[in-house]
Automatic annotation (TrEMBL), chain A:
SUPFAM superfamilies: C-type lectin-like (SSF56436). This is Sulfatase-modifying factor enzyme-like domain-containing protein. The lineage of its organism: Bacteria, Bacillati, Actinomycetota, Actinomycetes, Streptosporangiales. Residues 176-200 are annotated as: Disordered. Residues 171-438 form the Sulfatase-modifying factor enzyme-like domain. InterPro entries: CTDL_fold (IPR016187), Sulfatase_Mod_Factor_Kinase (IPR051043), SUMF_dom (IPR005532), SUMF_sf (IPR042095). It comes from Actinoallomurus spadix. Pfam families: FGE-sulfatase.
From TrEMBL, chain B:
InterPro entries: Phytyl_CoA_dOase-like. Pfam families: PhyH. This is Phytanoyl-CoA dioxygenase. It comes from the Bacteria.
């Protein structure tokens, strides 16, 4: 449709940028009168849309009423849009004719609540329009067929309010609140892989839930499929635009569906966690889950047991050495290892009997390093704000390094501990780094 | 949680280990905890009181008196100094203490080559005191001590903390890694280094750093030693700090307030 086909009264109203109420009423009079004379349904629809999307709420209200009177086919959608209108006078006007799927979709979106919350009447209501919207939504939800149809069409979580539907504590282990002594205990023998003493030795950790094992490739691929279908709904706001979340190992047949996901950046891990209503664990949470109340060196106890941790000794024969390599030897062996020629890198999660922390969390040491939500150098919460920076500029930026924990299939015994730590740039995608998710007790019970 | 939780702190054993050297090279700073005990600190503080008194009484040669920071004056007009250059040159007990504790190993250990300590050149070792509000010195804006191409560089700044340094009393704030990569931000993100009395902070000559304002009623004294591996100038060569600061202003806001702090 060309602009020349749009009636002049509609164009005048569309281009009216505000003025006196008298001017508006004059323009509205011409607009509404012209609408009544239009016989072409397409032209009528375009002209109504001009009023429904107008910047002035009074115009939107009148256009809504005109739509109900002149275009029954467009009216449900128009009411649906108006139900989410930021101006409550428009919203209230739409509540009267609210009916059908568009209205229910709009009410669910504008109320931002699950149907269960609406049916129970526990939604947050602050104004009369909120209360009226709740009443209208409850009336529509009483129609089971309509509700089923609308819920079936809903995209996967539209808002944080719907996350509870996705969050499941199944497959997670509860870690009660307690004290954490960071780093090796004074009575524990130290190795070259141990970190230096931290500035604050002890801290308390609130209760939380942690995934029993790292996120698998199958889990992660389901997330990337959802991103493909619904867009970047769960991503960190600082993430570079149009990030492709596909894991870097997607074409590597050695990375089985039940292996821990690797080849993912911190941004990828953050988005995955948000997708399932969780978050990344802090470094303190990770360490407490691994070390228990007795601050043990490994999840299973004090001594290193090579059969319980998938390290370099599991995927390669390190030059006749065991797992216990010194730094120089390890670096030499690893440097000479052709990773692409190794028959296997990661192994299936949860497959090693006895590899379990006091809280029942598995695969914490070995297999993959795990991203945390903690900045590496100072142990403070990691809050990226690098959106305007080119990834190449992040090298050397200390605040862009995230703490990773646990060691990987490429690590020697000295790094396969619950006390070791390392830092990696948040954009790094490595075949040795994966992650798991956490939920606070408070987050779990409030949903 | 408001102050750093996991900043690494090392134990000084008289030599610099591979882990310490690697950390210093990567991040441009290093913290040794508990190098000096209470009695050691008392020795240095007594030397500072004596040297301040001697300076104010004119017993120290003019060329060895501070010209960088103005004195402060109390309500009765009594002056106090914020900076005492050539500290170990005039404080044999402190100099002996530094040597007995093995700090001279820090220069060659961290720089990886022979190094010499500032003693009779470029202000020597420097005692510096930050006092609470309404004094002539309670903050220092972003700066470098010496640019990388300064004739004396590379160089290690070794700060012996005689009082606790906290985020409330303007502790040292560094931009880790800025000695290797120029900061990418107009407003660099700094890491506050909170330490206890007796701790030692080492940092490179060209790491971007500052110290914030004293917000509480505490005072904070530090004795700085400098170990250089570059050229050794003739005795009496004076200190100049403008080169590093002018370099730093390329990356930071040179507001009137910050320029004031640099004077």
């Amino acid at each position: 449709m060309t602009v020349s086909a749009i009636p002049i009264e509609v164009l005048r109203l569309s281009y009216w940028a505000g003025g006196t109420a008298e001017e508006r009423e004059t323009l509205l009079g011409g607009y509404l009168g012209r609408l009544e004379r239009l016989t072409d349904p397409e032209l009528l629809g375009e002209s109504l849309l001009a009023g429904l999307m107008h910047a002035d709420p009074a115009v939107r209200r009148r256009a809504l009423a005109a739509t109900a009177a002149l275009s029954p086919g467009l009216a449900p959608d128009a009411a649906g849009w108006a139900l989410a209108d930021p101006d409550e006078t428009v919203r209230t006007a739409a509540l009267g004719p609210a009916a059908g799927a568009p209205a229910l979709r709009a009410l669910l979106a504008s109320l931002g609540r699950t149907p269960e919350t609406i049916a129970a009447g526990t939604a947050d209501c602050a104004t009369a329009a909120d209360a009226a919207a709740l009443r209208a939504a409850r009336a529509l939800l009483a129609d089971a067929d309509l509700t089923g149809q609308v819920l079936a069409d809903l995209p996967v979580p539209l808002s944080a309010d719907r996350m509870p539907n996705r969050l499941s504590l199944s497959g997670m282990r509860h870690v009660p609140a307690g004290r954490l002594r960071r780093g090796p205990r004074p009575d524990q023998p130290r190795t070259w892989g141990d970190p230096a003493e931290p500035s604050v030795n002890e801290t308390s950790v609130e209760g939380f839930y942690l995934d029993a094992h790292p996120v698998t490739n199958a889990d992660y691929d389901a997330f990337t499929a959802d991103v493909t279908e619904h867009g970047h709904l769960w991503c960190h706001p600082d993430e570079p635009r149009d990030t492709d979340h596909t894991r870097a190992t997607v074409d590597d047949p050695r990375c089985g569906a039940d292996h821990p996901v690797t080849g993912v950046s911190w941004y990828d891990a953050f988005a995955y966690a948000a997708w399932c209503g969780k978050r990344l664990p802090t470094e303190d949470e990770w360490e407490r889950a691994a070390r228990g109340d007795d601050h043990r060196r490994h999840p299973w106890g004090e001594e290193f047991r090579p059969e319980l941790a998938r390290g370099l000794h599991s995927v390669s024969t390190p030059d006749g050495h065991g797992a216990d390599l010194d730094r120089e030897t390890w670096l030499r062996v690893l440097g000479e290892t052709r990773v692409d020629a190794l028959p296997a890198l990661t192994g299936p999660v949860g497959s090693v009997a006895g590899d379990e922390s006091p809280f029942g969390v598995r695969d914490l040491c070995g297999n993959v390093w795990e991203w945390t939500a903690t900045r590496y150098l100072d142990g403070m919460p990691f809050t990226p704000r690098f959106g305007t920076m080119d990834p190449g500029e992040l090298w050397g930026e200390w605040s862009a390094e995230v703490a990773i924990r646990g060691g990987a299939w490429s690590s020697p015994a000295a790094l396969l501990t619950a006390v070791g730590r390392a830092g990696k740039l948040l954009v790094t995608r490595s075949p040795e780094i994966g992650f798991r998710c956490a939920v606070s007790e408070a987050e779990a019970t409030s949903r | 949680m408001s102050s750093p939780q996991r900043v690494a702190r090392f134990r000084f054993t008289g030599t610099v280990g591979a882990d310490e050297r690697a950390f210093y090279e990567r991040h441009g700073f290093l913290i040794y905890r508990n190098v000096f005990g209470e009695q050691d600190i008392q020795v240095i503080k007594e030397d500072a009181e004596r040297l301040e008194r001697d300076t104010l009484q004119g017993k120290i040669p003019a060329e060895h008196r501070d010209v960088v920071l103005e004195p402060s004056y109390d309500e009765d007009g009594k002056p106090s100094l914020h900076r005492l250059p050539y500290f170990t040159l005039y404080s044999p007990r402190t100099r002996d203490l530094v040597e007995r504790r093995g700090l001279d190993a820090l220069g060659p250990g961290l720089l990886g080559r022979p190094a010499w300590r500032f003693e009779d050149v470029i202000d020597g070792s420097v005692w510096q005191m930050k006092r609470a509000k309404r004094t002539s010195y309670n903050a220092l804006d972003w700066h470098l001590d010496f640019p990388h191409d300064h004739p004396v560089a590379p160089l290690v700044n070794v700060g012996i903390y005689l009082d606790a340094a906290t985020t409330r009393n303007g502790c040292l704030v560094v931009v880790p890694g800025s000695h290797r990569f120029p900061p990418r931000r107009l407003d660099p993100l700094g890491l506050p280094l909170v330490v206890e009395p007796g701790d030692v902070i080492c940092h490179t000559n060209n790491i971007l750093h500052h110290s914030g304002r004293v917000l509480d009623d505490t005072c904070r004294a530090t004795l700085y030693l400098y170990y250089a591996a570059g050229e050794r100038p003739a005795a009496g060569t004076t200190y100049t700090h403008t080169a590093g600061e002018q370099f730093a202003t390329l990356f930071t806001d040179a507001s009137p307030e910050s320029e004031e702090a640099l004077r």
